[in-house]
Automatic annotation (TrEMBL):
This is Tryptophanase. It comes from the Bacteria. The keyword Protease does not apply. Its cofactor is pyridoxal 5'-phosphate.
Length: 456
């Protein structure tokens, strides 16, 4: 069955069609780090689904209607109305992107030494917890450890471990549930799990927040996979999820279907007052928070469109289709397929490359060299423990490559092309070389490092 994308194309943007010799030169120039490639080098860009979305005609129109008044702009109130209807939270601040909401929340809510407990903190979320002088603890459920299991909600938190953390000696300052669980294979969190978390957090008097970057995609997977939700609309499911928590941080560059934006929202008026002060000092006045009126109006419209079942169905089907085609071609990914990304199992595809030669990175480089496809490693290069010379001390638990799929940007033909490139690589995986680090920055290694192909 073809995927019926529920939109037609009104504006087109050419994508570069390059040759292998061109890509070899580009990759050498980039120090074999896809983050150093430029847009004109890349044919299919699966580096991130964040801020890479296509706007709808209605969003463009909303952008034209926008009001750029400094304080109290009409655009803010349109944004606020949509967010209130969706989340039910009384206090709500726009911010320029998700990590700004994280910084404001953690520096305001947490005291140094406290612990933030999560199904999995996203990397900026962890960094913001740590920069607030606190500890970020991930407690993913047991099923998450088996990449091949088809358990439907591998994004859940381990409830026993959560109870242990709340009842233990540590001072837990917040429970944060990431929906969907980006750091954990893009897997969804069940409503049953969220309900249990809400109960436990209330029992121990600890605030419960959502990291809601992909709230609509989580709602879709609940609708499809959780008993009792087949007849509940994704919007209603999303509302129920927000209703269980005390507030949320969200990067709206994902399910806001825009290019920039985020929000921080909550019920507690006293906490909101304190957050507002930090917001005004560091992001902008409370009715714009670092965004333009145009951004706010386009977000208000995007937040309505993102829960449309026809849109969510086509997007989820596209990801599942790519997962199936890749598997048929010989490349496994974390099962079951989520919505925003495919996490390829590079460790399994390239067993001849040991972790210290970065098999995930090797597959990411090969996808670019073979087909101009850009994606990011999630393995030992990013998550492993390295010494100052780039020697691997402790490998990551898995060697994965994330193919993150921008919203409404690529068609089924593009996905067929990607599957064909993957299939080609899987025909002679032993030809893919490993990589050695030549420059190892101390901080934010994966963004800035340089590598070379290793012949050993
Ligand atoms: N939380 C989650 C779950 C995320 O995936 C991201 C960003 C953030 C927070 C931070 O939001 O970028 O707006 O500041 N994820 C992007 C990605 C970068 O590619 O997965 P931000």
């Amino acid at each position: 069955m073809p995927i019926m994308e529920p939109y037609r194309i009104k504006v087109v943007e050419p994508i570069p069609i390059t040759t292998r010799p061109y890509r070899e030169k580009a990759m050498a120039r980039a120090g074999y780090n896809p983050f150093n490639l430029t847009a004109e080098d890349v044919t299919i860009d699966f580096l991130s689904d964040s801020g890479t979305n296509a706007l709808s005609a209605e969003q463009q129109a909303a952008g034209m209607r926008a009001d750029e008044t400094y304080a109290g702009a009409r655009s803010f109130f349109r944004f606020k109305d949509v967010v209130s209807e969706l989340t039910g939270y009384e206090h709500m601040f726009p911010v320029h992107q998700g990590r700004a909401a994280e910084r404001i929340l953690f520096t305001t809510l947490l005291k140094p030494g406290q612990v933030s407990v999560s199904n999995t903190h996203f990397d900026t979320t962890r960094a913001n917890v740590e920069m607030a002088g606190c500890v970020a603890r991930d407690l993913p459920c047991q099923e998450a450890a088996d990449l091949d299991s088809d358990a439907p909600f591998k994004g859940d938190i381990d409830l026993e471990a959560l109870r242990g953390a709340l009842a233990g000696p540590d001072d837990v300052g917040v429970v944060l549930m990431t929906i969907t669980n980006n750091g954990g294979g893009g897997q969804p969190v069940s409503m049953a799990n969220l309900e249990a978390v809400a109960k436990l957090a209330a029992e121990f008097g600890v605030p419960f927040f959502l990291d809601a970057a992909r709230f609509a995609e989580n709602a879709w997977l609940v609708n499809q996979r959780e008993p009792g939700y087949r007849d509940v609309s994704p919007r209603e499911i999303a509302r129920k999820a927000f209703a269980l928590a005390d507030g949320c941080v969200a990067s709206l560059k994902k399910d806001g279907i825009v290019h920039i934006g985020g929000m921080l929202a909550m019920r507690d008026p006293e906490l909101a007052k304190r957050c507002e002060l930090v917001l005004i000092a560091t992001e902008g006045f409370r009715t714009y928070g670092g965004l333009s009126g145009r951004d706010l109006d386009m977000l208000a419209q995007g937040l309505l469109e993102v829960t449309e079942p026809t849109y969510l169905r086509a997007r989820a089907e596209a990801t599942a289709y790519l997962a199936d085609q890749a598997r048929l071609g010989g490349v496994d990914s974390v099962r079951p397929a989520g919505v925003h990304a495919l996490y390829l199992n590079a460790g399994r595809l390239l067993p001849h490359i040991p972790p210290e030669r970065f098999p995930g990175h090797a597959l990411a480089c090969e996808l670019y060299l073979a087909g101009g496809i850009r994606c990011a490693e999630l393995g030992s290069l990013y998550l492993g423990e390295l010494d100052d010379d780039g020697n691997l001390l402790k490998p990551a638990p898995y060697e994965l490559v994330r193919m993150a799929i921008p919203r409404r940007v690529y068609t089924q033909s593009h996905l067929e092309y990607v599957a064909e490139v993957l299939t080609g690589i899987a025909k002679a995986p032993e030809k893919v070389p490993g990589y050695r680090l030549t420059e190892v920055p101390k901080l934010l290694r994966h963004f800035n490092c340089r590598l070379e192909q290793a012949s050993d």
